[in-house]
Amino acid sequence: MDKKTISRDGTSLAYESTGQGPTVILVSGAMSTGGTVAPLAVPLADRFRVVPYDRRGRGESGDTQPYAVEREVEDLAALIEAVGGEAALCGISSGGALALEAAASGLPVRQVAVYEVPFADFLEDGATRYAEYTAHLSEALTHGRRGDAVELFLRLTGMAEQMIQGARQSPMWRGMETIAPSLAYDDAVMGDGLVPRDRLASITVPVLSVAGGASPAWMRAAARAVAEAVPEGVYRSLEGQTHMVEPEVLGPVLAEFFRG
């Protein structure tokens, strides 16, 4: 990340900018940085100015306590101001929940696209599972057990125990533990884990909610529910795609939507 701006509370935010045209800001999800979503810039940069950034508490951005979702909305406000005063937002996974909240908060956002925000309305015992995850995550982070926090998140995503233990032995684990405190931020952004229908109904700009055709049925249903809750919402399913969507598949769909 070669550029910096400052949020309202003094937190330094690192971002990059590539391409020319209307601005699209990429908002990453849990355990991710701006670099994670940066590959989406490739299929978009010929028509848009694409801005991936490190959310607070991760990558090259700073952090300021205490955390509140409102601070992350202010981060996006500062970033939008730094890149010209208006932007479209593209949020991946829980980053989509943040993008939707930014739009509902009245930021100068012209469009929002989200990919598989993991609202648990259609997951068996989803609300209970989210509540238990929140409680256990808070306990682990309060006591400095970052590795346990990462394990909790990986289990929430459905990763098998054998794979989790294998990940613990991998070179990437240290980096995952470094970013683990930000899991609490994504947990807060997701609220109670259910589609915030009343909040989404207040969004006045077009919203595209996308899911992978090979993703679990509950995740596709959640994506559809987001589109149905927004007055100008549209749902799309990408054949053969999962939560780890391929940029070259998602990119053209985003470009079509952002062109209006």
UniProtKB/TrEMBL annotation:
It comes from the Bacteria. Keywords: Hydrolase. SUPFAM superfamilies: alpha/beta-Hydrolases. One of its GO terms (molecular function) is hydrolase activity. Coiled coil: none annotated. PANTHER family: HYDROLASE ALPHA/BETA FOLD FAMILY, PEROXISOMAL MEMBRANE PROTEIN LPX1. It comes from Streptomyces viridochromogenes. This is Hydrolase. It holds the Pfam family Abhydrolase_6. Residues 24-245 form the AB hydrolase-1 domain.
